[in-house]
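Subgroup meeting minutes
Present: P.N., E.W., G.H.
Scribe: E.W.

1. P.N. recapped why we're keeping a running log of single-chain structure predictions: easier to compare across weeks, and new members can see raw inputs and outputs side by side.
2. G.H. added today's entry (348 aa).
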Amino acid sequence: MGLKFKFVIGALFVSILTVSLASAQIGVPSPRFGPKALETADSTRPFASPGVFDYDTRAFAPLEFTNSKELEPNSGFFFTLDKVYTSVSRAGNVGVANNNIKTGSDYIWGTRYDLGWFSDDDDGWGITYQGAKGSYFTNGQDVLVAQPMLVNMSINTVEVNRLFRQSLSRGGYLEPYLGIRFTNITDKTLEDTTVMLAGAPASNRFKQEVTNNAFGLQAGGRYNVRRGRWRTTTDGALATSYNQQRSFATDITNAGGTQAITETYFSDQSFVPILDGQFEVAYNVSRDIALRLGIQATYTWNGIARANTLTTGANPNSSFGVNAGVPTGLIDDNHLAAGFIFGVEWRR
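Output recorded in log:
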């Protein structure tokens, strides 16, 4: 039994020695250990592409400069998270000039996510999502107002872009991109009133929902300049979108325990050009982490359907409106969203 065990150990030893000698003969390097651990790390990663999976996870490592002024642009994965405080165009009123109904713009909060990857060949992919929503009152906003209308609005944008990067001779680098863009803008209104039905008072809830779903192509570019820990970025893009418009309005009336519902629908399509711009400043607190602050604006030329914010008695989309039976249909309007962004960035 002891002789058999010694024979197995000896055979294993000879096999290992033979493989090692064969590897040396065909020139395959083996890891060499020294003060910095592995000196030739490439020989230990036969299935990993260098620069993709070799992240050392030291996100808060000190910043190191390649020269006295600039940092080389990062390769690998990146991710940014921003809070957005945006002024957006309010839904309007059509057919009645009434200063008691507030128009103009209103501020809403949102969040922006930007993630992607750059290769060592200066190209890559990027995905951006930004969503914002808020609410406001028209026709007054005090509890003593008899018929306030609550308007909830939301804006959501999704972008998928093919990214490229080119260093400039005078410093900085340009990142042109091409991609697809989806934009959703929605208005929802709610107003509870008392109406006259067959000569008797009845409670009525008037609701509207107007949606825009625009899908199209976009092209743009970012110009980046880095000096020390600071980086400034100017971003501009132009998108051409096909917008599907939808409008729904309903009156839900309750009189003496009997409920009645009236509904109207409209739909249309439109071509929507979108101009998008952004300027930001980033400060690197470590090698991979930076704080961000900036401004942005998105302008849409016409083709955006909005809700009619006239009160129930004057709203033609209500069955109890002044022009009931002759609805105005969809309201096409421009749309502007402009505001501030602030957040954090991680770049390998």
